[in-house]
Amino acid sequence: MLDFRVNTFLAVCEHMNYTKAAEALHITQPAVSQHIHYLESLYHVKLFQYEGKKIHLTPAGEILLRTAAALKNDEQFMLEQFSQLSTHGLALRFGTTMTIGESVISVPLASYLTRHPEVSLSMIISNTDDLLKRLHAGNIHFALVEGNYDTAEYDSLIYRTEPFIPICSSRHVFSKEPCCLRDLLDEHLLLRESGSGTRDILEKHLDMKNIRITDFAHITEIGNIHVILELLKADLGISFLYQAAALQGIEDGMLRPLNLRDFQLEHDFTFIWNKGSVFSDIYRKVYEEMRPVNSN
Description:
The chain is an alpha/beta fold.
């Protein structure tokens, strides 16, 4: 079981504030300080450093955070498996980003559950940032993400590789058919909220072309892919999405991808879990059984 002082350390990491950590743990701030000092003395390292009034993890603190987060996740996984002993099935909690959850996972998941009716499963759909926080906190065991993440903190397997495309209504009329990204800057851009993997991929690719989101004439942020797709079908803007999310609309003839000479992009959907988990073999087996048949 995790030492209570390690739990205090994790709370400080979550809030990056001793007072807020104390409130969350229902202990005093001096007790929080005492717990951190104990760990620093035990390991002979500094875990936090101050920059003005803000605290930041030291390199040693980063290592302890990765290790403690994995241990907490493993402990929670172990306890849940204990509760499932009578049914001889796994208890799995995982998360997916919206494109994967709404357009990719349903068929592989149905196949997995058909083969393993004894499994107790809980799945949430959220953006990449939120799923990474839930992994750190031990609230989920693994995640399927479309966005970027720190490879030093997670073990990973590529789930599939998906084209990332510019797209608009099939009836959208441009003043001149676009052939490059800058030809789209006068358009109304529909995009996901900050923290979304879809948006992160787009912003990083645009940055390589010296283009910012704010360079578009009009921007609307929407935290739901289905709403974006409906607005695209209504010819209310353009967007950049994973092909899997827009495939049905393309096949129905309501949406069309744009062929830009400077935007040819693919990105991985990735199966991740906390690095160093003692349950890595279980997660790898779940990955193999839940992987889509036609994955790239």
